[in-house]
Every structure is written in C-alpha cells, then in structure tokens.
Amino acid sequence: MIIKSAEYLISNAEWDKCPKPILPEYAFIGRSNVGKSSLINMLANNEKLAKTSGTPGKTQLINHFIINQAWYLVDLPGYGFAKVSQSQRRRWEQMIENYLRKRENLVNVFVLIDSRHTPQKLDLDFINQLGEWQVPFNLVFTKADKNTQVETSRNVKAFLNRLKEDWEFLPAHFVTSTVKKSGRDAILTFIDEMNAQFRAIA
Ligand code: GDP
Fold first, then answer.
1. Which of 31, 32, 53 to mutate to test the pocket of ligand 1 (most atoms within 8 A of CB)?
2. What residue's CA is closest to ligand 1, atom 9?
3. Ligand 1 within 6 A of CB of 87
C-alpha cells in the first residue's frame, strides 16, 4: 500500500463520539513507551503524525487518523503507566473496553510488544482479555534493532509459546524496527487485504 495522505481527525473520550463507522478501522495499543507513536509515524510516513515521547500516560484519549481517505488508524492510550491514579486507570479501562467491544467498524487491533523483553504479564493479561471479548488482534513486536536478531527471535518465540498455553490458534505477528524501517510493508499489506474484505462485505 502506498500512503498518499495521513491526517489527524479527532480525539474522543467516548467511543460513541468517534467518527461515523463507515470506513475500516485499525487500532494500535501497547504499554507506555513500547514505541507506538514511532510505529504509527513509520506506517504513515510522517514523522510528526503521532506525538513521540510526550508525557507518558498524558494522552488518555481515542485518537483518530484517516489514511488515504480510505481507512481509520486509531492511536489508543497505552497501558501500564505506573504514575496514573486508580481512578484514571479505571476510566482508561472503561473507555478502552467500550471502544474495543462496541466499535462496529473495528477490523483489527495491533497489540504492540517490546521485543527486548521476555513475556510480560501485563501484555499477556491484556491479550487474554481481548480473547474473552472476542476482539480480533495480532501482535507487533517493536524495537527489533535494539537486540541481536537471535535475541529478538528468542523473545518473539517465547511470547508465542506462552500464548500457546492458553490459545488454540496463534495470532499473526509482525517484527518491526522504526530505526531500520522494517516491518512496515508487511503491516500495510495486511491492512490492504483486510480493507478489501471490509469492502466486500460492506
Ligand atoms: P510510545 O510511548 O509507545 O508512543 O513510544 P514512542 O514511539 O514515543 O517510543 C518510545 C521510545 O522508544 C522513544 O525514545 C523512541 O525513539 C524509541 N523507539 C521507538 N521505536 C523504536 C525502534 O524501533 N527502535 C529503537 N531503537 N528505538 C525505538
């Protein structure tokens, strides 16, 4: 897919205030600092689209972007930020649950996982929650350049093996680096294919 245009549209605290659900939508989520803004900027070919390294946990809204006037990219606030209060966390959980379960044009959630680490409970819990809610998702391993290829694939394998304990089928996964600009084509091709399916059933 060639990105011809990428624009910020709107930010909302409530799922039902989001843009009309007439285009296929893809949401990106992960723990704070996982590399989500960098990944979104890489996909959109625009270094300034999503704010990189703002105050973690500050952007607590559902952020809509429109790509090629054809699909929505959604930047969701990250989880696992230690400095937010209990009440903020509950607000986040409620907003995210409502959005993920009710947004009718949501085609897929990309869950970002930091490839530098062994499987983390926080990520696994979030993924299992998605499973319970029957929200379609796949995995994007970020910052692949930070380790050697061998270490990265060891962490990816460990994560998938951990998922196999609870899941019959494994989700698709992508390995990315915004420094090396890798993984971009695979993700955009996946979105392209999903967009075609969305149009076919619309
Ligand atoms: P967010 O909080 O999830 O939006 O994460 P950011 O995109 O702001 O990235 C957090 C930090 O990780 C920043 O310092 C980025 O420069 C860095 N980072 C993000 N992606 C990569 C990557 O692929 N490789 C490397 N080496 N650093 C990255």
1. 53
2. 35
3. no
State pLDDT tens for residues 115-174.
999 999 999 999 999 999 999 999 999 999 999 999 999 999 999 999 999 999 999 999
The H or E element spanning position 174 is: strand 173-175
Q: Distance of CA 143 to CAs 30, 60, 156, 190, Å?
A: 13, 23, 12, 20
- The residue with tokens 């304990």 is 165
For ligand 1, say whether the CB of 146 is within 6 Å of any of its atoms.
yes
How many Å apart are CA 165 and CA 121, to the nearest integer? Answer: 14
CB-side neighbour CA atoms (13 Å) of 88: 14
- Residues 16-34 have pLDDT tens digits of 999 999 999 999 999 989 9
Edge-to-edge order in the sheet of strand 25-30: 6-12, 62-67, 71-75, 25-30, 106-114, 137-142, 173-175
Give the number of the atom of ligand 1 that is nearest the alpha carbon of residue 78. 3
The minimum-distance atom of ligand 1 relative to the CA of 33 is 2
> Nearest CA to 195 among 62, 3, 9?
3
Q: What is the pLDDT of residue 125?
A: 94
C-alpha closest to that of 99 among 115, 75, 121, 83:
75
Q: Is 179 helix (H, G, I), strand (E, B) or coil?
A: coil
The rounded Å distance from CA 56 to ligand 1 centre is: 12
